Amino acid sequence: MALLNILCYPDPRLHTVARPVQTVDARVKTLISDMRETMYVADGIGLAATQVDVHERLIVIDVSGERNAPLVLINPELTWASEEKQLNDEGCLSVPGIYDGVERSASIKVQAIDGEGQLRTIEAQGLLAVCIQHEMDHLLGKVFVEYLSPLKRNRIKTKMLKARRDTERA
Ligand code: NI
């Protein structure tokens, strides 16, 4: 297993649109376990392949408190989304230290292939629904700060660039 490097906003590679995974082969299975490990070590609840600079439609998620219920979504497609919305503070491993409110559908249905190559339907509400929608955005090249006002987004961008400069200097 290997820890993967997580791209940080405003890295332009985060805006790449991912292509579908062709087959769940050994390479993809290694990527899944590396992404899962990377997510756990970074203490995140979700990670999209886009964030580790692999532009394929693959997500790992674990919203359980015990960190023992990983979910793998390959080529996820939203098949239904409730009109009812929920507003939640979101964060992102690619935008460390930033949390802000984003409105999303309260309930969703998603079809995706799991880590064993089986097609599954997932019905989600609450935190899981938020997380799946957030991660699916990553696959389309979208980071949650893009839902915020231009003013807030620019402030975040400046802060992230400054943090990067400070790290490079250290
Ligand atoms: Ni994210």
Write the layout of secondary structure elements.
Blueprint (H helix, E strand, L loop, with lengths): L25 H16 L4 E3 L9 E4 L9 E11 L3 E6 L9 E6 L1 E7 L5 E7 H14 L10 H20 L1
Antiparallel strand pairs: 1-2, 2-3, 3-6, 4-5, 6-7
Nickel (II) ion binds next to α2.
What helical percentage do the residues reach?
A: 25-40%
Low-confidence runs of at least 5 consecutive residues: none
Q: Indicate the overall shape.
A: globular
Helix/strand-derived category reads alpha+beta
The helix/strand order is HEEEEEEEHH
> How big a fraction of the residues is strand?
25-35%
What does this structure look like?
The structure is a single chain. The protein is of the alpha+beta class. Helix content is 29%, strand content 26%. The chain has a five-stranded antiparallel sheet. It has a two-stranded antiparallel sheet with strand order 4-5. The protein is built from three helices and seven strands. The two termini are 28 Å apart. A hairpin with a 5-residue loop joins strand 6 (107-113) and strand 7 (119-125). It has helices at 26-41, 126-139, 150-169, and strands at residues 46-48, 58-61, 71-81, 85-90, 100-105, 107-113, 119-125. Residues 92-94, 134, 138 line the site of nickel (II) ion. Nickel (II) ion binds at residues 92-94, 134, 138.
